[in-house]
Amino acid sequence: MGDVPWIVVLIILPLTGGMACFLFPAISKSLGLLTSLAVVACVWGLGWQLEEEGAQRYAIGGWGAPLGIDLYADGLSLLMLVVAALVGLGISVYSCGYFSPDKANHFWPLWLFLCGALNALFLSSDIFNLYVTLELLGLTAVALVALADGAEALTSAMRYLLISLLGSLFYLLGVAFLYHSFGSLDIAILAQRAEPSPAVWAAVGLISTGLLLKTALFPMHFWLPAAHACAPTPVSALLSALVVKASFYILLRMWLEIFPMVGTSFAQLLGLLGAAAVLWGGIQALRQTRLKLLIAYSTVSQLGYLFLAFPLGTSLAWKGALYMLLSHAMAKAAMFMAAGNILVLGGHDRIAELSSITQRLPLTLTAFTLAGISIMGLPPSGGFIAKWLLLQASIESGQWWWGIILILGGLLAAAYVFKVIGHVFTQDEPTRQAGTLPTTMEWSALVLALVAVLLGLFTSWPLAIMEIGSPFGTGHSG
Q1: Closest CA to 150 of 35, 42, 90, 230
Q2: What is the average pLDDT across 356-363?
Q3: How many Å apart are CA 105 and CA 127, to the nearest integer?
Q4: CA–CA distance from 208 to each of 43, 169, 200, 211, 215 (Å)?
Q5: I need a labelling partner for 224 at 20 to 30 A (CA). Which of 1, 98, 163, 398 fits?
Q6: Greater confidence, 215 or 229?
Q7: Is the pLDDT of residue 73 over 60?
């Protein structure tokens, strides 16, 4: 088992599954589920391999860098793969009952191509390869958003496409500066050669701008709420839980390895934008009258927490940000699934009129509430552990003001979560039953919400994963 190249299998498997779903649409649901389960098993295999042997580097075609392209896996890569595999499995189970046969024929190939792009992105150690995977990720995400019917969904998809292409263009220009300056695209080689120069500062600015656009960090978040709210529910969950995290992962990887010479001023700017995102996103979520839009603006707010780690810059802060990423992915996917259940059964997601629908969806309401506990950062959830680590890092580094942002963000999250729950518990006459909801759609939301809460009780394993290959220390470039 230790000889199996799991790094390669994790990329080839979902791409092969996507092609199989395209060629055999009649059994695409079964093929998609089987592929998602197999991806989880392969991530477990890679995790076992990394735990036994440490960080892994694989030269594609036997030609290593600088002539060839390397794949690289350490604790940071593995954590992202775990998030993608678990959330992806939950979304696959949910989608079995959500899509009509016609839409399912389009969804499954696109979703598995997106899964393959995510895995390739998390395992790439070549900055141009990262660009290729970003493009595949963006194009499949746009196509998935466009699966929803109506002019509004198409407009949102086109806006998303233009923003995605603009972000990729900025990133590619930055890559060109680095390649021209140092003659390599491999992250490990660039980490050794990179030194302060005007070309490097230009690359930092271009790459960061492109990735922040794709991550939808305030004030570049304007495309996100409409795209997430208009997309089909499984796609909304994918976008919020996984897609926007991919560009953050690239920024973090390059910050840790290629751009450590960047001064504190830029780190403080990222922290300020993150703090603004936490507050602005929370206030906008509180103002919404539709449930999916509320959850979308909540994503804008929660993404801000990830950037509070940049000015702190300690190992503890990075672990807090990644724990936030992990718990947010589970909780936000569960929230979107709960909103989707309400939309399917009730035909709308107007918050003021939820009470007549949710009385028939106790599991969905439970899933939303549990996910809300993690989003608010209440114990014993994963969100609490993440905020505790960030708070501890802010106090230890003497930057206590970031702790105030953490507390204010938690209060805003409590306000908009309780706004929904308050309407839910209003005693209204139940509406006439218009249809039934597959149990898999309720249970998949509940299981992901439970995982988000249980992450607060079982912290040792995720934190141990992050240590493999010392991604936050020196000498980890392989």
Answers
A1: 230
A2: 75
A3: 33
A4: 29, 12, 12, 5, 10
A5: 98
A6: 215
A7: yes
Q: Dig out the tokens for 257 from the structure.
A: 């390895």
Token output for 423: 């309407």
For the stretch 220-254, what's the b/e string if a residue is b when 16 or more beta carbons lie within 10 angstroms of its beta carbon?
bbebbbbbbbbbbbbbbbbbbbbbbbbbbbbbbbb
Give the type of residue at 200. Answer: V
Query: Can you give the pLDDT at residue 7?
Result: 87
In degrees rounded to 5, what are phi and psi of residue 218?
-50, 135
| Band of residue 385 on the pLDDT scale cut at 50, 70, 90 | very high
Give the pair of three-digit tokens for residue 177. 């500066």
Rg of the chain, C-alpha, whole Å: 21
* Averaged pLDDT, 25-54: 90
In angstroms, the Cα distances linking 248 to 251, 256, 318, 331 are: 5, 12, 12, 18
Question: DSSP per residue over 377-412, as a string?
Answer: T-TTSHHHHHHHHHHHHHHHTT-THHHHHHHHHHHH
Can you tell me which residue has the tokens 């709420």? 225
Alpha-carbon distance values, 215 to 47, 167, 229, 306 (Å): 27, 10, 16, 11
Q: What's the rounded Cα separation, in Å, for the pair 76 and 62?
A: 24
